Structure formats: structure tokens, C-alpha cells
Amino acid sequence: MKTTRSPQMTGCSRTRFPRSPCTVCWALHLCRYFGEQSVQLAGKRVIELGAGTGVVGILAARLGAEVTLTDLPLALSQLEVNVSANMPSSGWPSSPPSVLPLSWGEDHMNFPSDWDLVLCADIIYLPETYPLLVETLTHLCKNGASVYLSSKMRKEHETPSFYEEHLPSRFNVELVHRDDKQNNNIYKASLRTDQ
Ligand SMILES: C[S@@+](CC[C@H](N)C(=O)[O-])C[C@H]1O[C@@H](n2cnc3c(N)ncnc32)[C@H](O)[C@@H]1O
């Protein structure tokens, strides 16, 4: 998969960027998990939040999912470039991924709630956004979507508190994979029925 970041993206768009040598590596944890678990992506309606390079969503689209990639406005032109660079030679099996702005806690009402899967790769590192992200996930998952989240468990960014406090306030949360060496967890979550 070809991905690039534009010069203005070195700060991971306008937000703070976690001190990670390679954010794509954390997204690849989720790609690998989908392959190992044979998670069915073809035909699914998928939205990715904080897509960044778009690696996970683009993989899903190449496998036949109908994908919407979202991020802050500044990140979108690079996402478009990565989508074009990764079009299969035979064309997209479903449709080309859509690229749209979605700032957590602000724009989610512009999106429907009928997704099959919501993907989140390495987006849990800004504690001030945790309540906003839960609000956005709650809207997107109203009709039963499953959320997959891959995170390096950075104590300095309070990442564990997102999974132990913020997300469980509205979602059933299951740890489905842990990489001890990389300190990376993958969670699957679904909106609690009492919400
Ligand atoms: C560390 S990067 C991860 C990118 C990509 N998911 C990956 O794993 O390669 C975090 C992404 O979250 C996005 N982001 C940060 N705060 C956001 C917010 N409030 N709303 C929407 N996206 C946000 C950033 O623009 C960035 O693309």
C-alpha cells in the first residue's frame, strides 16, 4: 500500500501527534488483525474516523467494502492522494472510498447511523477529545455497527482511561487482541442497548 504525508501533515494535521516512530505501523495492527481473523469486509458499509493516511479504510475498500474516510479538513487532500494512488488496477471492487470532513463531537450529524463497521486506528491520544469521540461513535453506531479500535496504550496520553471509563459509559467493550511487545491493543465495541 502506498501512503504519503504532505509536509503540512508532519504534525498529524493541526493536532498534536503522538511520539510514535511510525503511525502507519499502528494502523497495520488492525489490517493484520482483520486478515488473521478473516473479518468479512466485502459488501460492508464502513466509516473510518481520523483516517490520516487512510491505510485501514483503503484496505477495506480494496477488499470490497463501501468506505467513507473521514478526518479533519486539513488532512483530506492527502487522503484523496492516497486513495488515488491505491486504486486497484482493475478498479475499486465496490465504489471508490469517499473522503469527507468529520471533526469529532462537531460534524457527526452530517453522517448517517447505518454503518456495519466503524474503524479507529491510533486516534486515542488526545484526552480532551475522548468525550467528543464517544459522542460521535454513539451517533454512528445507533443502528448496531461494530467499532474496531487499535491503540498503542500510552499512559502519558491517558489512553487506558478511554477504554476503561469513557467508551464503557456507552458501549460494550471487548479486548480482542493484545501485542505485548508493541503495547498495542485492539478492541471491539458495540453500543449498549440501554443507550
Ligand atoms: C495518529 S493519527 C492516525 C492516523 C491513521 N488512523 C493511522 O493510524 O495511520 C490521528 C488522526 O486523528 C485525526 N484527528 C485528531 N483529532 C481529531 C478530531 N478532533 N476530529 C477528527 N479527527 C481528528 C488527525 O487529524 C489524524 O489524522
Automatic annotation (TrEMBL):
GO terms for cellular component: cytosol; protein-containing complex. GO terms for molecular function: methyltransferase activity. GO terms for biological process: methylation. The keyword S-adenosyl-L-methionine applies. Transmembrane segments: none annotated. Gene3D superfamilies: Vaccinia Virus protein VP39. This is Protein-lysine methyltransferase METTL21B isoform X2. It comes from Stegastes partitus (bicolor damselfish). The gene is eef1akmt3.
